[in-house]
Each structure stands twice: as structure tokens, then as C-alpha cells.
Write a structure and sequence with these properties.
Layout lengths: L9 E2 L6 H17 L7 H24 L3 H28 L6 H13 L4 H14 L31 H27 L1 E2 L2 E2 L5 H26 L1 H27 L16 E2 L3 H7 L2 E3 L4 H6 L6 H6 L8 H15 L4 E3 L2 H17 L2
Parallel strand pairs: 1-4, 5-6
Antiparallel strand pairs: 2-3
Helix pairs in contact: 1-12, 2-3, 3-4, 3-8, 6-8, 7-8, 8-13
The protein binds zinc ion.
């Protein structure tokens, strides 16, 4: 059987991009008037030091002091939460090229994901290309494809057990990181695709780098701690680290797009889809903010509670999103575009659970 060629969805080209043009003009003016760089600033670099320092301290505490499990579990949990935080704040900005104006620093920040067990090469296609361009387009956006166990979008097949998915989703979210590290990265590597979308051909150096990082991660997080702590204490700790990282990473990305207020676009593989909205409006209709007044969440989540601004301006560092949000809201008001924001983390979780419940019960 010949393979159906992937045809990328297109964004209402005939309508032009009046909204995005106006918004970009205002955002550029903001940076010019305040004479600041849209990339990371000193605050981000201090946070980078705190997160990486904390991660190294917890890791070295584990493998050098080799404490009993009554102490070690706290270090494993800290490693899990710091894995998520480094992903949100350092890797994510670096991979988007927004961490610094220096490309080598962006590359270094982006490569932190390799150190945490996932490949930057796969991440850039999955996240920067597929998720950011085709947000909530069913069958293309890999973030809303969690396999048969979860039905996240209306065009996905409904199975009987989905009616309980709003009860068991957290257990699956907790497995995301481990699944990613042991399976999905390799699936992407060997198939050369993220879902339907082809990954750019890897150079010989990139192939070597993929495997070298995987080997390093295995040595650092499996081999060495297993040797120092013993098999069962390592297994318990590694699961705790992986599950805490997986749950936090999943829930934060899902709250931004998989809620009752977000829209989903069906797509038929092999056919050309043209969306009704220009790209920027499509991003706003598929994305939500949450808990933007929480100083702790804004710090810890690397601005991913400001996903609307992130999706509109992924190449601007998250440290600027609270200020950009005012400009985006004002422009949405003038263009009559609905801007979705949950006041609290809990209200976003409620909407996510409600969406999962609806998808589990509706045909
Ligand atoms: Zn992103």
C-alpha cells in the first residue's frame, strides 16, 4: 500500500493577517519604547543558576552520600520537580531561541533536555514545528494524541473505557516522562516522523549525538545510582522522579489547550485543510492562560501559564509575557477575539477534567 503524503494545513491565506500585523507592531513598539531585549534577562539567568544548582546538588547528594530511602525519596522527588522546572524555564526557551540573543547559549539551554533523557532533535520537530504551528489540529498536533487510552479531541475514536478517563488520566500523565524516555523518542527516531509530520533528515553528527546523549543519560540516571543505591531503591526512586516530572509536565501543557473553552479542528490525512482563521487567531482560539496572578506559578512554570502569549510570540522569552499579556488582551478586545484565561490553577483543572469527561461520554 502506498503511503499517503502529509499535506500541511494552511491558515486562511486569503484573509491576510490583519490581527497579527497589528499585534506585532504593538509588541515591537513595547520593546523599542522600553529599550529592552525580547530575549532572556538577568532574572532568567539567576533562575537558571538556582534550578541547575538545585538539580546538581540533589543528584550529587544521591550518588555521593547514597542515603537510605527515608532520605533519598526527597532527593528523587526534588529531581523530578526540577526536571520539569528546567524543561519549562531553560530548555523550552532555549529550543525556541528565546533564552538569549546568543545562539550558542540557546543551543546549550535547549540541550539540557538531552541531559534529562529526551532528545532535543525530536523535541524541536514535535514542539516547535508540529505543536506550535498546528495547535489542536486533530491528527497532526502530537500533544493531543495520547494513544488509545485517552480521547482528547472530538474526531478521535471513542471507546467504552473513555467514560472513566476523567478519573484515570492523572495516572497516565504520571507515566508520560518514563514512556517518553524509554519509548516515544525512539519511535520518532526510527520512524523519522512525529505523528504524520516528517522529521528533517539527521546528519551523521546528529545520529551520533542522539545515541551519545541516550547513553550518557542511561549511565547517569540508571547505571550509577543503581550501583550506588542498589536495584530496588534505585527503581523506587527513579519511578518517583519520572512520575513527578511526567505529571507536572503533562498537566501544565494540557491545561493550556485541552479545556472546554479551546477549539479543535478536524483534519483528514492526505487532504488539504484550510482553517477559517488567520494563524494568530487560530492560536488564541486553541489556547488558554491560567493563574497569571500567581507569582510562584509564573516563576516555576517558565511563563507556561501565559500560553496565549507564548503561542503568539514563541521567540520572545517568557520573562516578558506578563507585560505582553496586557497588549494582547487590548488588541483582542479591539478585534473582537475571545481571549481565554482561568483565574486560578484549580479552575483550569476543572475545565480540563470537564473536557475529558465530555470526550469520554459524547459520541
Ligand atoms: Zn513552546
Amino acid at each position: 500500500m502506498s503511503e499517503i503524503r502529509f499535506r500541511a494545513p494552511r491558515f486562511a491565506p486569503k484573509a491576510g493577517q490583519p490581527f497579527y500585523q497589528e499585534l506585532t507592531k504593538r509588541v515591537n513598539a513595547y520593546f523599542e519604547q522600553n529599550n529592552i531585549s525580547p530575549k532572556g534577562n538577568a532574572k532568567l539567568y539567576v533562575k537558571t543558576g538556582v534550578l541547575i544548582g538545585g538539580f546538581l546538588a540533589a543528584y550529587l547528594g544521591l550518588v555521593l552520600a547514597a542515603p537510605g530511602f527515608e532520605v533519598a525519596w526527597m532527593l528523587w522527588l526534588a529531581l523530578g520537580l526540577l526536571t520539569a522546572a528546567i524543561g519549562f524555564n531553560i530548555m523550552h526557551d532555549g529550543a525556541h531561541g528565546s533564552f538569549s540573543k546568543h545562539n550558542w547559549l540557546n543551543e546549550m539551554a535547549g540541550h539540557s533536555v538531552n541531559f534529562l533523557g529526551a532528545s532535543i532533535l525530536m523535541w524541536k520537530t514535535k514542539h516547535n514545528t508540529v505543536h506550535h504551528t498546528f495547535t489542536n489540529i486533530e491528527g497532526v498536533d502530537d500533544d493531543i494524541d495520547a494513544g488509545a487510552m485517552l480521547r482528547m479531541a472530538p474526531s478521535q475514536e471513542r471507546r467504552g473505557f473513555h467514560r472513566f478517563q476523567h478519573l484515570y488520566f492523572s495516572a497516565l500523565y504520571a507515566l508520560l516522562y518514563i514512556y517518553w524516555v524509554v519509548y516515544t523518542d525512539y519511535k520518532k527516531y526510527f520512524s523519522g516522523k512525529v505523528g504524520q509530520v516528517p522529521i528533517p533528515k539527521l546528519t551523521r553528527f546528529q545520529h551520533i549525538s542522539f545515541w551519545a546523549w541516550k547513553a550518557l543519560h542511561l549511565g547517569l540516571f540508571v547505571g550509577l545510582p543503581m550501583w550506588k543505591l542498589g536495584f530496588l531503591p534505585w527503581l523506587g526512586g527513579f519511578m518517583l522522579m519520572g512520575m513527578s516530572a511526567g505529571f507536572v509536565l503533562s498537566i501544565v501543557f494540557q491545561l493550556a489547550h485541552v479545556v472546554t473553552e479551546a477549539s479543535f479542528t478536524p483534519y483528514v490525512h492526505g487532504e488539504t485543510l484550510e482553517t477559517e482563521d488567520e494563524w494568530a487567531i487560530h492560536q488564541i482560539k486553541t489556547t488558554a492562560n491560567f493563574a497569571t496572578k500567581s507569582r510562584f506559578l509564573t516563576w516555576f512554570l517558565g511563563g507556561l501559564n501565559f500560553q496565549v502569549e507564548h503561542h503568539l510570540f514563541p521567540r520572545i522569552s517568557h520573562v516578558h509575557y506578563p507585560d505582553l499579556a496586557k497588549i494582547v488582551k487590548q488588541t483582542c478586545d479591539e478585534f473582537n477575539v475571545t481571549y481565554t484565561e482561568f483565574k486560578t490553577f484549580a479552575s483550569a483543572v476543572r475545565s480540563h477534567v470537564q473536557h475529558l469527561r465530555m470526550m469520554g461520554q459524547m459520541a
